[in-house]
Design brief:
This protein is an alpha/beta fold. Helix content is 63%, strand content 8%. The chain has 21 helices and 7 strands. Helix 10 crosses helix 18. It starts with a helix and ends with a strand. The C terminus is likely disordered.
Length: 484
């Protein structure tokens, strides 16, 4: 069983996984350095985190082929920790973040990703594509035509090479070719080495030198809760996107636990907290990566680049990596969503657009996604909070109210207002065969209607209750009407 898991999980797509992993590793370096600078730490903190998280998640994660490492979403939350308390508190926060995520995984919170509407997922994807694109623009500041030419050349290789051969990932080929051209021509363009210093040293085990007290815990807890939520939000949504791209399934709860374990280990090896990276994951999938081996190779080759090829890596022009990230933007953005924006329900279109706007403006994925979910819930509630009523007299002279719609807290007041208590005859029938009783508020509304009629010495019969509605009413001991 274990051997089958290893064979299927790591050796079912070896050639493509190795090549895609190498491509991802090259793209990880400038990202990890940039996120380290964003967090206010040494570039090696981000590089060590990317190596440790990628290797760990390749083993314990729940979504094969997904890349996890240091990310901008997490780095943006770490600045205050560094500024106020120092580096060791960041490592401790990373460990606590991982522990919180592992606990959440034990409680199976991964299933809650099913509550994220499709319009929010599309908004999340499009917002990330825009953010990735905008993050590349500073690389053009102060640059001249060679930079633009190299970016164009990178994109040309990426999109034209597959028309000739798919033996080697076009993104990897583009990075190698543009790097060779830059070195051979002596082009004065910005390189990876300009991003920050890359030290050729292994990460080492380190217990954060802080005071392990309850006071420290309460200092770190707010930061760690935010990191845990942001990390899991991005990871679960990225996993969902990869599921769709590869037409395969993933274990979301295992992924939540895996992210926790990866961050715990990272905190003990001088890295900062991370999560899934949609940009690098798209590179991996589009380069042919499908199994855990691609993620493992990405992490191991990243360490190899740091330790052995550091001097060469420093010469990689940023133009090549910018071109690759532009490819990610183009491949990530759901262009079909623009074409269908006018045809989908207006509420869903508004939610999608607002999710994009909130994520881009705040640069906070969790806020954008949570806002999108809340807006979708309000939109759904608004749609559901409408009742239709048809009334007529039957052959016995009774007035029959036929209610269509959902009975819950949102329709409680509307339901009560449907009835003409004083003008109605002595016997009223409320037909709920086209409705459903969802909560105690609905039962309370029905009870109030019956009580008003009872005060006028009129009787009410409730008909058409389905089994679930009848069971709910029986559970609360509903009485005051004859049910048929």
């Amino acid at each position: 069983m274990f051997l089958q898991y290893i064979k299927r999980g790591f050796f079912g797509n070896v050639r493509n996984d190795v090549l895609s992993g190498i491509t991802v590793a090259l793209a990880l370096i400038p990202e990890a350095i940039a996120f380290s600078i964003m967090a206010g730490v040494d570039p090696m903190v981000g590089l060590y985190a990317s190596f440790t998280i990628a290797v760990t998640i390749s083993i314990v994660g729940g979504r094969p082929g997904m890349i996890s490492a240091a990310t901008g979403a997490m780095a943006s939350l770490m600045g205050p920790i560094i500024a106020k308390y120092g580096l060791d508190y960041l490592f401790a926060a990373t460990i606590l973040t991982g522990l919180l995520q592992w606990i959440l995984g034990i409680f199976k919170v991964g299933r809650f990703i099913t509550f994220v509407p499709h319009s929010v997922i599309i908004g999340f994807v499009n917002a990330l594509a825009i953010i990735i694109f905008m993050a590349q623009l500073p690389n053009f500041i102060g640059e001249f035509w060679p930079m633009y030419l190299m970016v164009a050349g990178t994109l040309a290789i990426i999109y034209l090479l597959p028309l000739v051969t798919k033996a080697i990932p076009s993104a990897l080929t583009a990075i190698i070719v543009i790097t060779v051209i830059a070195i051979a021509t002596g082009s004065d363009v910005r390189t990876v080495g300009d991003m920050g210093e890359i030290k050729q040293a292994l990460p080492f085990f380190h217990i954060p030198q802080i005071s392990w007290t309850w006071e420290t815990l309460f200092i770190l807890l707010p930061y760690c809760l935010a990191l845990a939520v942001v990390g899991l939000t991005e990871s679960l949504l990225t996993a969902t996107i990869v599921d769709e791209m590869t037409e395969t399934k993933s274990n979301k709860n295992r992924e939540v636990r895996g992210q926790g374990i990866a961050n715990i280990i990272t905190g003990f090896f001088g890295g900062m907290a991370g999560c899934a990276m949609i940009g690098q994951t798209v590179i991996n999938v589009k380069s042919g990566g499908r199994t855990r081996l691609s993620t493992l190779v990405a992490g191991l080759f990243l360490l190899f680049l740091i330790l052995v090829l550091g001097d060469i890596v420093k010469q990689i022009p940023m133009a090549a990596l910018v071109g690759v990230m532009f490819m990610v933007c183009i491949g990530t953005f759901d262009w079909g969503s623009i074409r269908t924006l006018g045809t989908i329900p207006r509420g869903d279109a508004i939610v999608m657009v607002l999710t994009v706007v909130i994520v881009v403006v705040t640069s906070n994925l969790a806020i954008g996604v949570v806002s999108g979910v809340i807006l979708s819930a309000l939109n759904f509630g608004w749609k559901m909070a409408s009742l239709r009523c048809q009334d007529h007299r039957d052959e016995q002279g009774r007035k029959v109210y036929r209610i269509s719609g959902q009975l819950f807290f949102g329709t409680m007041m509307h339901f009560i207002e449907l009835f003409d208590h004083h003008a109605d005859p002595d016997h009223i029938v409320i037909d709920l065969s086209a409705s459903h009783v969802w909560d105690h508020s609905a039962i309370t509304a029905i009870s109030k209607v019956i009580q008003k009629y009872a005060g006028l010495e009129k009787t009410v019969s409730i008909t058409g209750l389905n089994k679930e509605s009848q069971r709910m009413m029986d559970q609360v001991g509903f009485s005051g009407s004859s049910s048929h």
